[in-house]
Write a structure and sequence with these properties.
Distance between the termini: 38 Å
CATH class of the largest domain: Mainly Alpha
CATH architecture of the largest domain: Alpha Horseshoe
CATH superfamily of the largest domain: ARM repeat domains
Low-confidence stretches: none
Oligomer: single chain
Number of helices: 16
Largest sheet: 5 strands, mixed
Helix content: 40-55%
Shape: globular
Number of strands: 8
Order of helices and strands: HHHHHHHHHHHHHHHHEEEEEEEE
Structural class: alpha+beta
Number of domains: 2
CATH topology of the largest domain: Serine Threonine Protein Phosphatase 5, Tetratricopeptide repeat
Mean pLDDT: 94
Amino acid sequence: MSESTLFKDNLNETLAATFGREIQRVYADFDAAGFVAQIAPQLPPLELKERVAVFTTALHDFLPEYYGTAVTILLQVLHPETPPEDGLFNNDLGWALWSVAHFVEVYGLDDFDLSLAAMHDITKRFSCEFAIRPFLVRYPQQTLAVLDGWTADPSPHVRRLVSEGTRPRLPWGMRLNQFIDDPTPTLALLDKLKNDPSEYVRRSVANHLNDITKDNPELALAALRRWNEGEPSPETVWITRHALRSLVKAGDPEALALLGFGPARVALSELTVAPAVIRLDESFTLSFCLTNETAVAQNLVIDYVVHFVKANGRTSPKVFKLKTAVLPAHAALPIRKNHAIKPITTRRYYPGVHRVEVQVNGQILGGAAFELETGD
């Protein structure tokens, strides 16, 4: 996919035609031309997930009415299992398989056993992390029991689904409020995946734990402390570092301590933010020096915080990562960072005084300010 291609553009008439031919290959009565004719006119104004839904509806309209028969046909279209390192879209049907997972999600909720078995196969080609979530809501204990067995599945795709599909705050997915309220059931699953041999799976475990830190930080920290007792494995050390990224940005002392960062005993000097006034598409430069005045080396997490002015004139802080460092005894560390104020889709800039602060091991050591002029 080129940089200029939007994700939604991959769900297009050409893909519908390819998908239709593949279905017709295993089910001769499939009206491939009618399938394309129904899909193509609807696509232009639609966004990504809306296009997936159009494909899914067309599958329902052109496949046999009985869900079991339709799913059996779709499973015959699946390509060989995708290696995790290849991603989800590196075959001719990659994007179309999202609609196969969605078909199970929308039309298979009344057939638990068949749908879970189908997802076990589909997720090896396209993740069923969205499709499994309604099943967790309607059949929580049954679904968790199946997922518990899948923690030992030979396929890393299936093991990853155990973690990714139960994430409380999965991006683009429905929130699982029962696990936001009480993540204990999913923590039991993650405990079985913490030393998984696949980084693909471990990354999902870390992201899942990061989700939990947003609502139940004490439970996430308790699990990670348990995992790190004695001689923790390299796998759990890696997971811990990635799982605590939100708490570290927030300066949580328990998270920092778990990662080996105690209270910062350093002196801040030579702090400047320049120029004093900038406009959109310009940059400010943050400069400062940290000095370790103790007789022992210190592990440091060094961040900076920009307090962006909002529409109402108040400010909202955003933490930016700078670096981690080991600062030797009686040593100094000069730091210089350029930060561009460029328009982005996730933030609108407003004029006014923006404060910039230096944060080390979760502690704010000092700050300075610049004024932003937007021309409004």
